[in-house]
Amino acid sequence: MNDRTPGVGTARQAPAELLQRLAQRFGESLSTARAVCEQHGRDESPFDVPPPSAVVFCRSTEDVADAVRLCAAFATPVIAFGAGSSLEGQLLAVQGGVSLDLTPMNRVLEVVAEDMLATVQAGVTRLQLNEELRHSGLFFAIDPGADATLGGMTATRASGTNAVRYGTMRENVLALTVVLADGSVVRTGTRARKSSAGYDLTRLFVGSEGTLGIITEVTVRLQPQPQAVAAAVCSFPDVARAVGCTIEMIQSALPIARCELMDANAVRAVNAHDHLGLPEQPLLLMEFHGSPAGVREQAEAAQQIAGEHGGSDFAWADTPEERGRLWKARHHAYLSALQTRPGCRCVTTDTCVPISRLAESIHDTVLEADAAGLPYFVVGHVGDGNFHVGYLIDPLQPAERELAETLNASLVRRALRLGGTCSGEHGVGLHKQQFLLEEAGEQAIGLMRALKRTLDPAGILNPGKIFS
Amino acid sequence: MNDRTPGVGTARQAPAELLQRLAQRFGESLSTARAVCEQHGRDESPFDVPPPSAVVFCRSTEDVADAVRLCAAFATPVIAFGAGSSLEGQLLAVQGGVSLDLTPMNRVLEVVAEDMLATVQAGVTRLQLNEELRHSGLFFAIDPGADATLGGMTATRASGTNAVRYGTMRENVLALTVVLADGSVVRTGTRARKSSAGYDLTRLFVGSEGTLGIITEVTVRLQPQPQAVAAAVCSFPDVARAVGCTIEMIQSALPIARCELMDANAVRAVNAHDHLGLPEQPLLLMEFHGSPAGVREQAEAAQQIAGEHGGSDFAWADTPEERGRLWKARHHAYLSALQTRPGCRCVTTDTCVPISRLAESIHDTVLEADAAGLPYFVVGHVGDGNFHVGYLIDPLQPAERELAETLNASLVRRALRLGGTCSGEHGVGLHKQQFLLEEAGEQAIGLMRALKRTLDPAGILNPGKIFS
CB distance A455–B450 less than 8 Å? Predict the structure, then answer.
């Protein structure tokens, strides 16, 4: 364990009697095998923390409720586990405890095409849901890079490349089933598109990172598959001009569906990984949704704006296959970049700033990264003002991690000065606690702590996350 | 006081010493004049409740904080007051106390055009904000019928005719300043369009009806004024076909900006009030936003769908003035209907159902209303599945009120059976408490109560609302 890891308490072993009771209840769905526990004690964050004492593979809300009830009786932490793709240490057992693996909860419970909604168990992944929707004329819009579970995406208030047009999990979750700290089960929300009936319990759990309850079912909004889709790549002489183009497109109300920045380093990485042959300079990867005429009109307006900012003629991905290849490459940027430095780990940043401050935010960030000399890449959901720098560090060289963290701190504090947030879509976890405090202030953090104490008085739900 | 009014406790008089201390602090901004108190003890709901003991006219967050602190010291309820247009009894002093009139807090603090956001004091009204935005190329999209304050709209999670395209206050509030029960001040949110930094305190306060804190400043998203706008009226032989047309437009992903239903009664009322000469049969009032070509395309698609449902040829409102006249008339439907029965009051319903269940929901409602023989009208934000029936009752005839409440109860329970909500946009207040319980269930209400106790342990913030 790194002693700089925040939120780490005494990583207690779960009591033997609890493990015995869990074994009685769950049989072979309980594992204490070292390899299994270790697999559930790592995510994509660079933190190094002892694994949980046991893993329960849950198949139903009742399984989760029973597991929570047993753990509560022994004051033992419970941590929900989905795809394991969280980036800020959300699922690490910093105070020991039991991991509840929800991936066996992988059933799409209902698709109501005429109301454009679906209810899924928490372990369903976004690709799985979209595969099931393939012939429905609908799709689920939120797409973080990883094939995350919808439970995990809800818990971290995730978004992705489509958020500029379709919103984030905040806007796309209609209703939830949640297991509370005492093992009771609460339903929030209805199927209505809007409601002003009482406190917004749904939004209380969206983004709570497993610290207020364990999400077991999610009802999400679906979007109609657009009549026409066009994707284009546009290269720019520098990042600043690509960002300037984005800002102007957003301010002119162009209803762009996706607008992704990749810097030259990111392009080089995906070229190497996916053999794309893209020009190795900063680019925007765009997608337009609408009627055939509407898409044509949007594309023309976008090309016009891009040209004024020094952008190249658009290179079009005309077929679904070509588009799929491009977006897959974009989603692979993180993994592709990791492969450019064998054995490295990635410290990923995740600020979001008001769109008018995006250019200076990225510009100053790139200057600092260049001066520092660490390998890095930049990708961004720039239509939202959200971008990620990935610093590729050698985990065996503590100085590199420290340097990356210093760069991240500078970047986050710049975002806060500009009216932005320390986390656009990855959440707080272990990594952003100090920044959250700086962003929200003592008063707001005090309120968050009070909510936590109310919903989880014994502090067994993913303790040590968001705030310690 | 009607003994059927829910949430009514002992309407204590505020202690004389508190009034003295408030007078010292606020001077002429404190009023205990009977007429002033009575004006602050009524909203558009039909409840009859004694007025507050005093009214403090607040000019700043500090004023609100000081008033709350003083009231807290005397365990006296505080109730925020904006335009007084709430419909469910939200601002009635059911347990006595002091009304904080926030209408003097009417400054637009900042418009950041390039980030499409504005920060306003809570007493700014939606028309005032849009007037200030007139030359900015932007507008604020949320438009409940009344010229409500943005504080009140936030507190009730209001929406209106544009929600089908632009969302509700839930989606359009970025950040808040809130005075808590102890007089401390908390800021929630940032200027970033999205964030996953900690619990969603903003959404906790949106829709909390003054029971968790008093909202004093609101940062909202603005929308670009569309390049082109077209409004059209389409008459239908019956309500069912107007609704069928709406459902098909939504399901075919037509990005309609407004889609309002008025039944023949509502049309007759606005014709009489605004001299519109509309055909007195059910109609849809629609608006399309986009590029000139996009608007043309949407309008053609809508006309095609409407025709298939027996709709008339669209009558176009081509100029901003004609459009303004139409929408003003739509917003006047409530007041116009009141004038069709002199001396009446209106019991307004506010359910929202999944769009696929809207036709049966309205159909059965209309059958029941016709059978009951009370005058009524129907208007609806039908693109969202949200509609209102207004029953026009003689306040001197208790049987009429009872009949209207019976009809409302039947309507709400139907909505709940169909997967909908008891309140689409008016909130819970005094009126929907039993229905909220039926909708959310004991478990969820227990959680809401726990949140209330955490944020307001002494129960001084608008007590007796949402749950008693």
Answer: yes
Residue A273: its H or E element: helix A264-274
Chain A: nearest CA to B33, how far in angstroms? 33
The residue of chain B with its CA nearest to that of A212 is B199
What count of other Cβ atoms lies within 10 Å of the Cβ of residue A63? Answer: 21
CATH of domain B108-224: 3.30.465.10
pLDDT digits (tens, 9 = 90+) for B355-408: 999 999 999 999 999 999 999 999 999 999 999 999 999 999 999 999 999 999
Count of CB atoms within 10 A of residue B384's CB? 27
Separation CA A199–CA B456 (nearest Å): 14
Residue A402 and residue A423: Cα distance in Å, rounded?
20
What is the reported pTM? 0.96
Q: What is the 8-class DSSP label of residue B52?
A: P
Q: What architecture is the A337-417 domain classified under in CATH?
A: 2-Layer Sandwich (3.30)
C-alpha separations of B22 from B39, B70, B322 in Å: 19, 7, 49
Tens digit of each residue's pLDDT (9 = 90 or more) over B271-299 = 999 888 999 999 999 999 999 999 999 99
Q: Of the candidates B184, B195, B385, which has its C-beta nearest A193's C-beta? A: B385
Helix (H) / strand (E) element for A98: namely: strand A98-101
**How do residues B36-65 score in pLDDT, each as one tens digit?**
999 999 988 878 899 999 999 999 999 999
Is the CATH number 3.30.70.2740 carried by domain B341-463?
yes
Burial of A446 by CB count in 10 Å (0-12 exposed, 13-18 middle, 19+ buried)?
A: middle
- Widest Cα–Cα separation across chain A: 69
